[in-house]
Amino acid sequence: MVQVPRLSSRRARWAVPAGALVVTGGILAGSLITTAQAAPGLPARTPAQLLVQVASATTPPLTGTVVETASFGLPSLPATGSPTSLSSLLTGSHTIRVWYASPQHFRLAVPQSLSESDVIRDGGTAWLWQSTLNKVTKYTLPAHAPAEATGPDQTVPAQPVTQQQAAQQVLAAVGPTTAVSVSSNVSVAGQAAYALVLAPKDHRSLVGQVQIDVDARNGVPLRLQVFARGASTPAFQVGYTAIQFVTPAAADLTFTPPPGATVTRENLSGGDHGKAPDTNGVTTIGKDWLTVLRLPSASLTPGVHGSGAAAPGEGDAVLNALLGAATPVHGAWGSGRLLRTSLVSVLITDAGPAYVGAVEPSVLYAAAQSSH
Amino acid sequence: MSAARFYNSELRLVLLRRRNLLLLAVTAIFPLIIGIALRLAAPHPDGGNGGGPAFFSQVAGNGVFLTFIALSTLLILVLPVVVAVVAGDSVAGEAGYGTLRYLLAVPAGRARLLAVKYGVIVTFGLCATFIVSVVALLAGTVLFPVGPVTLLSGTTVSLADGLLRLLFVTLYVAAAMAALGAIGLAISTLTEHAIGAIAAVMILVVTSEVLDNVPQLAAIGPYLPTHWWLSFDALLRAPADTATLLHGLLSFGVYAVLSGSFAWARFTSADITS
Fold first, then answer.
1. CATH of domain A47-144+152-267
2. C-beta of residue B59 within 8 angstroms of C-beta of residue B43
3. Residues 217-236 of B with CB under 8 A from A
4. Model-level pTM?
5. What are the structural domain ranges in chain A?
């Protein structure tokens, strides 16, 4: 004898899975909304005060996770699986785990599925570990490292007496090109933060605004977002998704090459550590937000000629994928192909050189004409 | 009949079914094949083996890694098939054979029958996962040197620590299979054709894995049922990435609860005539 419940009670049972589904969806949506809209209450700050806070901040010891997301609206690029490859930096999302005690003692880990790359700096020694290659590179660093190049410090001139003056000078310097403001407060990785917004005044820039979220308590930049003009979601974003201001355990900041790994040594304590990186003939045209990079033809030749070399490398594959989405254009400057994304324009001239900038195509055309 | 006796008799039925024993034997053979193949190929410790999970080469230095290689390889298809067969068959098979009404004639209650069926599925998945781990560990010990374990972060931990991490990795994979078992049980309550339920579970697994590998769909990836399966690698980092592990376990729990409640609503309200 099979016991079948009454019809009404049978129907009512479906309320349980339906309820479970609604609760799950509600929690998911809730977590998405709170991260997007929570505006913590903080004492008001002017842009100058915020700049002072950033400039005077020393990064406290921390443990956290940084996620970088790029969505330039590029065509899908050939996947290579390497976290440092060109195509992987241009599209998708990447996670970096950070352990930071001081500029001389920190560790960065890039976890990938079933593999990991690590950079560990332990005083005068730095290590690069690549699990896929089972390879360790040991760098010997100069005894007296040059001062850490943190963003704000570079822009602040040495003369001003107070931070406040320095901030005013910075504001005055960027004033003609950039509107600096403080937007409504945000919550980043659970930390209340001020939002410093830099917006280009020139409408030929494709950058709508750059938002830097600054931790309210200690002035540490927690997140950088670059918005394309008219976009409500960032085209590029890098920031903490989790952060704790605690000193990492000493064991997380040291490294011993594992047995069986290949160890190569590189000495960076020689005299050439101050040398600028090889620019490969890349020059810039224009300034500030309208800066255009001019790449010599050599760096793009394989892609321009289509079929590429006998064994096209990863760079060629990426380039060909990009060129496939480019449209032919011509003008007084000559002719070539134009690739437009929400944030970046690329002009590859038939003459050879390519022009790249976060600008409208007209600026690229002008740059191409001026460097004829 | 007490719940424990009911569970024991059901488990004996499932474990002694020749088809299921064969499935367990297959899961045991795979780690052996992988181990022997890797031993014959004798990969260089400096990598460059081209393809496969990155740590394939590390097995040459340490046999313990054969377990991680075996688990990550079998997680793609073999373990899901094993769980799908038992879960898809659990209710639909009985309905198809016409034995379900006799089971329900026992004054057990449908909810309890479902709970016992799910308990058996979870146990079977746990068995299959541990068989893979244990056979791979034994094969790795025989075929390769065994010693301190180098984690993905380059940190070397003692063999005991490595084996403890291996235990947690195995339990994590078993949890993933338990969540899949709940999905299979829910699908199984929808049909009287066991093969249809089994096929549906496998199609779901493969579809989820394919979608998870499409870069343009990265936004929905974390919500797919298979997304967190390989995240057991979080245990192989130093320090272990507990946030990722908890995300994975939360995903498994949500899928288990949703599917379980669906199976319960369906099974306790359906007319059972066969």
1. 2.50.20.10
2. yes
3. 218, 223, 230, 233-234
4. 0.81
5. 47-144+152-267, 283-370
